[in-house]
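Dissemination and training. As part of the outreach component of the grant, students in the summer workshop were shown how a complex can be specified as a set of sequence lines and then modelled as a single object. The example used during the hands-on session is reproduced here so that future cohorts can follow it. Participants entered these lines:
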Amino acid sequence: MIRLSVNINKIATLRNARGGNTPNVVEAAKRLESFGAQGITVHPRPDERHIRYTDVRELTKVLTTEFNIEGNPNPKFIDLVLETKPAQVTLVPDAVDVLTSNAGWDTVEHKEFLKTVIAKFKAHGIRTSIFVDPDVAMVQGAAEVGTDRIELYTEAYAQGFTQNKEQAVKPYVECAEEAKRLGLGINAGHDLSLDNIKYFAEKIPFLDEVSIGHALISEALYDGLEPVVKAYLKKLS
Ligand SMILES: CC(=O)[C@@H](O)[C@H](O)COP(=O)(O)O
Ligand SMILES: NCC(=O)COP(=O)(O)O
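and obtained this result:
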């Protein structure tokens, strides 16, 4: 079974647009869990433009499913993860000013750094995952730094899917096969959606987990607009 972890960054983005606490990210996370989500993912960024460090602390107190914290392991992030002890930490090499994640780790160039950080998290019982491009050498490098899992960065798959899905998924299947051979767990995420997820899961059925946020929250808006508009009309009739 491939587990679904819902990334709630976008719920925080909406909340932050008004300055209050609507929508409430803790309430949304609890509802997602009650609807069957098997995990909650957050990606606090240094500018806290969506998920804030305080959200992470509040979520830790109430979540009953797998909590996955993603981010660039700068000292502040490392302290937050060690304090909140999620089930999983996913290391993403984000520059501070990026709009969203746009690259995986160079696991060869950053080998010593990754080894140190991963050992630190693992010593505290936190499962580790490293965000990587679909490049076999990067998967092999990930195995060498001692991570438990990799997360395949799926933006290129999502972009290629509409043109040529066989070609788009091919490097991911190769990397997943290599990761499996090396004994790594395999997660995937970024721009996965209701349109492209089924084919990806069929081609890599031994995936452990996908984390999905942007498309899932957008799809929830489309699907939720009808009942909510009808509820308002009923109140006004
Ligand atoms: C690592 C990854 O692909 C996701 O965490 C994605 O970057 C979401 O982050 P934003 O919500 O900030 O776009
Ligand atoms: N790790 C990927 C993630 O959490 C969600 O990415 P996206 O669905 O918001 O692109």
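The radius of gyration is 18 Å. Students were then asked to discuss how this feature might be tested experimentally.
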